[in-house]
Design a protein that fits this description.
By secondary structure, the protein is mainly α. It contains 16 helices and no strands. The protein folds into two domains: about 100 residues, no CATH class; about 100 residues, no CATH class. Helix content is about 70%, strand content about 0%. The protein is elongated, with a radius of gyration of 20 Å. This is U-box domain-containing protein 4.
Protein backbone atom coordinates (compact mmCIF):
# COMPACT_ATOMS: atom_id res chain seq x y z
CA UNK A 1 0.00 0.00 0.00
CA UNK A 2 2.81 2.40 0.86
CA UNK A 3 4.78 1.53 -2.25
CA UNK A 4 1.69 2.06 -4.42
CA UNK A 5 1.47 5.68 -3.21
CA UNK A 6 -1.78 5.22 -1.28
CA UNK A 7 -0.73 7.67 1.42
CA UNK A 8 -0.39 10.62 -0.94
CA UNK A 9 -4.08 10.31 -1.83
CA UNK A 10 -5.27 10.53 1.78
CA UNK A 11 -5.57 14.34 2.19
CA UNK A 12 -7.91 14.53 -0.82
CA UNK A 13 -10.46 12.29 0.90
CA UNK A 14 -11.52 14.99 3.40
CA UNK A 15 -13.30 16.98 0.71
CA UNK A 16 -14.79 13.93 -1.02
CA UNK A 17 -15.71 11.53 1.77
CA UNK A 18 -18.16 11.68 4.67
CA UNK A 19 -17.01 11.61 8.29
CA UNK A 20 -18.02 8.01 8.97
CA UNK A 21 -15.92 6.78 6.05
CA UNK A 22 -12.96 8.85 7.17
CA UNK A 23 -13.24 7.41 10.66
CA UNK A 24 -13.45 3.88 9.27
CA UNK A 25 -10.05 4.38 7.63
CA UNK A 26 -8.25 5.14 10.89
CA UNK A 27 -7.66 1.46 11.83
CA UNK A 28 -6.08 0.94 8.40
CA UNK A 29 -3.74 3.89 8.95
CA UNK A 30 -2.94 2.52 12.37
CA UNK A 31 -1.84 -0.74 10.78
CA UNK A 32 0.24 1.03 8.13
CA UNK A 33 1.89 3.30 10.71
CA UNK A 34 3.17 0.25 12.61
CA UNK A 35 5.78 -0.02 9.83
CA UNK A 36 7.46 3.02 11.38
CA UNK A 37 8.19 1.00 14.52
CA UNK A 38 10.17 -1.38 12.31
CA UNK A 39 12.02 1.66 10.90
CA UNK A 40 10.41 1.21 7.49
CA UNK A 41 10.55 4.67 5.86
CA UNK A 42 7.10 6.25 5.84
CA UNK A 43 6.23 9.76 4.74
CA UNK A 44 4.32 11.03 7.77
CA UNK A 45 2.97 14.20 6.14
CA UNK A 46 0.02 12.62 4.27
CA UNK A 47 -1.05 10.72 7.38
CA UNK A 48 -0.81 13.86 9.51
CA UNK A 49 -2.74 15.83 6.90
CA UNK A 50 -5.49 13.22 7.09
CA UNK A 51 -5.67 12.65 10.84
CA UNK A 52 -5.10 16.06 12.40
CA UNK A 53 -8.13 17.78 10.80
CA UNK A 54 -10.22 14.90 12.15
CA UNK A 55 -8.93 15.50 15.68
CA UNK A 56 -9.26 19.29 15.35
CA UNK A 57 -12.80 19.26 14.00
CA UNK A 58 -15.57 20.97 16.03
CA UNK A 59 -16.88 17.48 16.81
CA UNK A 60 -13.73 15.35 17.21
CA UNK A 61 -14.16 11.58 17.48
CA UNK A 62 -15.03 10.29 20.93
CA UNK A 63 -15.61 6.60 20.17
CA UNK A 64 -12.87 4.41 21.56
CA UNK A 65 -11.93 2.74 18.25
CA UNK A 66 -11.37 5.94 16.26
CA UNK A 67 -9.70 7.82 19.10
CA UNK A 68 -7.36 4.95 19.97
CA UNK A 69 -6.50 4.23 16.32
CA UNK A 70 -5.79 7.88 15.61
CA UNK A 71 -3.62 8.64 18.64
CA UNK A 72 -1.78 5.33 18.44
CA UNK A 73 -0.99 6.07 14.79
CA UNK A 74 0.65 9.31 15.91
CA UNK A 75 2.59 7.35 18.52
CA UNK A 76 3.80 4.83 15.93
CA UNK A 77 4.98 7.63 13.66
CA UNK A 78 6.81 9.30 16.56
CA UNK A 79 8.91 6.17 17.17
CA UNK A 80 10.80 7.10 14.01
CA UNK A 81 12.77 10.19 15.05
CA UNK A 82 12.98 11.40 11.45
CA UNK A 83 9.23 12.10 11.69
CA UNK A 84 9.56 14.31 14.77
CA UNK A 85 10.02 17.59 12.92
CA UNK A 86 6.91 17.16 10.76
CA UNK A 87 4.84 16.02 13.75
CA UNK A 88 5.90 19.01 15.83
CA UNK A 89 5.54 21.58 13.05
CA UNK A 90 1.96 20.40 12.45
CA UNK A 91 0.99 21.61 15.95
CA UNK A 92 0.54 18.10 17.28
CA UNK A 93 2.01 18.84 20.73
CA UNK A 94 -0.76 21.26 21.70
CA UNK A 95 -3.42 19.01 20.18
CA UNK A 96 -2.23 15.95 22.11
CA UNK A 97 -2.01 17.83 25.40
CA UNK A 98 -5.58 19.03 24.91
CA UNK A 99 -6.76 15.50 24.09
CA UNK A 100 -4.96 14.09 27.14
CA UNK A 101 -6.91 16.53 29.30
CA UNK A 102 -10.32 16.04 27.67
CA UNK A 103 -10.30 12.40 26.51
CA UNK A 104 -8.96 9.75 28.88
CA UNK A 105 -8.93 7.19 26.04
CA UNK A 106 -6.31 9.31 24.29
CA UNK A 107 -4.13 9.97 27.32
CA UNK A 108 -1.70 7.04 27.24
CA UNK A 109 -0.88 7.07 23.50
CA UNK A 110 -0.88 10.88 23.57
CA UNK A 111 1.63 11.09 26.41
CA UNK A 112 3.73 8.28 24.90
CA UNK A 113 3.92 10.28 21.66
CA UNK A 114 5.01 13.39 23.57
CA UNK A 115 7.64 11.34 25.41
CA UNK A 116 9.07 10.22 22.05
CA UNK A 117 9.08 13.78 20.76
CA UNK A 118 10.89 14.85 23.94
CA UNK A 119 13.87 12.81 22.78
CA UNK A 120 14.62 15.63 20.34
CA UNK A 121 15.58 19.21 21.12
CA UNK A 122 12.67 20.52 19.02
CA UNK A 123 10.26 18.32 20.94
CA UNK A 124 11.54 19.40 24.33
CA UNK A 125 11.21 23.05 23.34
CA UNK A 126 7.69 22.59 21.94
CA UNK A 127 6.49 20.86 25.11
CA UNK A 128 8.20 23.37 27.39
CA UNK A 129 6.70 26.35 25.56
CA UNK A 130 3.15 25.02 25.23
CA UNK A 131 0.51 27.00 27.12
CA UNK A 132 -1.10 23.83 28.51
CA UNK A 133 2.09 22.85 30.37
CA UNK A 134 2.33 22.15 33.26
CA UNK A 135 -1.39 22.23 34.13
CA UNK A 136 -2.42 19.28 31.94
CA UNK A 137 0.47 17.11 33.12
CA UNK A 138 -0.31 17.83 36.78
CA UNK A 139 -3.98 16.98 36.12
CA UNK A 140 -2.98 13.65 34.57
CA UNK A 141 -0.80 12.88 37.59
CA UNK A 142 -3.96 13.12 39.69
CA UNK A 143 -5.54 10.17 37.88
CA UNK A 144 -4.30 7.39 40.11
CA UNK A 145 -6.36 4.80 38.20
CA UNK A 146 -3.95 5.22 35.27
CA UNK A 147 -0.45 4.31 36.56
CA UNK A 148 1.15 4.21 33.10
CA UNK A 149 -0.18 7.69 32.35
CA UNK A 150 1.16 8.90 35.69
CA UNK A 151 4.61 7.57 34.79
CA UNK A 152 4.58 9.33 31.41
CA UNK A 153 3.26 12.59 32.86
CA UNK A 154 5.96 12.49 35.55
CA UNK A 155 8.63 11.95 32.90
CA UNK A 156 7.42 14.93 30.86
CA UNK A 157 7.29 17.11 33.97
CA UNK A 158 10.89 16.12 34.68
CA UNK A 159 11.89 17.14 31.14
CA UNK A 160 10.26 20.54 31.57
CA UNK A 161 11.51 21.06 35.13
CA UNK A 162 15.12 20.50 34.06
CA UNK A 163 14.89 23.21 31.40
CA UNK A 164 12.83 26.10 32.74
CA UNK A 165 12.89 28.02 36.02
CA UNK A 166 9.62 29.70 35.10
CA UNK A 167 7.89 26.39 34.45
CA UNK A 168 9.15 25.05 37.78
CA UNK A 169 7.64 28.04 39.51
CA UNK A 170 4.40 27.54 37.61
CA UNK A 171 4.36 23.85 38.62
CA UNK A 172 4.52 24.84 42.27
CA UNK A 173 1.74 27.41 41.81
CA UNK A 174 -0.64 24.84 40.29
CA UNK A 175 -0.09 22.32 43.08
CA UNK A 176 2.60 19.98 41.81
CA UNK A 177 4.23 19.66 45.23
CA UNK A 178 1.08 18.27 46.83
CA UNK A 179 0.62 15.93 43.88
CA UNK A 180 4.22 14.73 43.97
CA UNK A 181 4.03 14.08 47.69
CA UNK A 182 0.87 12.02 47.29
CA UNK A 183 2.21 10.08 44.31
CA UNK A 184 5.56 9.56 46.00
CA UNK A 185 3.77 8.10 48.99
CA UNK A 186 0.96 6.03 47.50
CA UNK A 187 1.62 5.96 43.74
CA UNK A 188 0.60 2.69 42.11
CA UNK A 189 3.93 1.95 40.44
CA UNK A 190 7.47 2.01 41.76
CA UNK A 191 8.65 4.06 38.78
CA UNK A 192 6.18 6.88 39.31
CA UNK A 193 6.97 6.98 43.04
CA UNK A 194 10.69 7.25 42.28
CA UNK A 195 10.12 10.01 39.74
CA UNK A 196 7.88 11.94 42.13
CA UNK A 197 10.44 11.78 44.96
CA UNK A 198 13.24 12.82 42.61
CA UNK A 199 11.30 15.86 41.45
CA UNK A 200 10.54 16.85 45.03
CA UNK A 201 14.28 16.82 45.64
CA UNK A 202 14.88 19.03 42.60
CA UNK A 203 12.26 21.53 43.68
CA UNK A 204 13.45 21.69 47.28
CA UNK A 205 17.16 21.94 46.52
CA UNK A 206 16.88 24.06 43.38
CA UNK A 207 18.95 21.63 41.35
CA UNK A 208 18.78 21.95 37.59
CA UNK A 209 20.93 20.81 34.69
CA UNK A 210 20.10 23.32 31.93
CA UNK A 211 19.17 26.66 33.47
CA UNK A 212 20.26 30.08 32.31
CA UNK A 213 22.14 32.67 34.36
CA UNK A 214 20.61 35.96 35.47
CA UNK A 215 17.78 35.87 37.96
CA UNK A 216 18.00 32.10 38.43
CA UNK A 217 19.18 32.37 42.05
CA UNK A 218 16.25 34.51 43.13
CA UNK A 219 13.84 32.22 41.31
CA UNK A 220 15.36 29.22 43.04
CA UNK A 221 14.99 30.87 46.44
CA UNK A 222 11.36 31.68 45.71
CA UNK A 223 10.65 28.13 44.56
CA UNK A 224 12.37 26.63 47.61
CA UNK A 225 10.28 28.85 49.89
CA UNK A 226 7.05 27.88 48.12
CA UNK A 227 7.96 24.19 48.22
CA UNK A 228 8.86 24.29 51.91
CA UNK A 229 5.57 25.98 52.80
CA UNK A 230 3.64 23.47 50.72
CA UNK A 231 5.49 20.50 52.21
CA UNK A 232 4.86 21.67 55.75
CA UNK A 233 1.20 22.28 55.00
CA UNK A 234 0.48 18.97 53.31
CA UNK A 235 2.79 16.33 54.79
CA UNK A 236 0.63 15.46 57.75
CA UNK A 237 -2.63 15.17 55.83
CA UNK A 238 -1.08 13.03 53.08
CA UNK A 239 0.53 10.69 55.60
CA UNK A 240 -2.88 10.21 57.21
CA UNK A 241 -4.36 9.34 53.81
CA UNK A 242 -1.48 7.03 52.86
CA UNK A 243 -2.09 4.29 55.39
CA UNK A 244 -1.02 0.63 55.32
CA UNK A 245 2.12 -0.87 53.87
CA UNK A 246 2.61 1.81 51.23
CA UNK A 247 2.82 4.44 53.94
CA UNK A 248 5.46 2.47 55.86
CA UNK A 249 7.41 1.86 52.68
CA UNK A 250 7.62 5.40 51.40
CA UNK A 251 7.06 7.99 54.14
CA UNK A 252 10.69 7.85 55.30
CA UNK A 253 11.81 8.94 51.82
CA UNK A 254 9.35 11.80 51.73
CA UNK A 255 10.30 13.04 55.18
CA UNK A 256 13.76 13.80 53.81
CA UNK A 257 12.24 16.63 51.78
CA UNK A 258 10.47 18.25 54.74
CA UNK A 259 13.61 18.78 56.80
CA UNK A 260 15.42 22.09 56.40
Amino acid sequence: MVDSDLLTKLPQLHSKTNLSTIQSLTPLLHSISSLAKAQFPINSLPILSFLLPLLRSPSPPTDATTLTSTTTTLYNLSTQLDNSKSIISAGTVHLLLNLCFLQTKATEPGLATLANLALTEEGKRAIEEDSLVPEVLVAVMARDEEPKCQELAAYLLMVVARRSVEKRRRMVEVGVVEMLMEVGLIGRSRLVRERAIRMLGWLKDGRNGEMEEGDVKSCKREIRCMVKQSLDRNMESILRRGGGKKKKKNCSDLKLFVAD
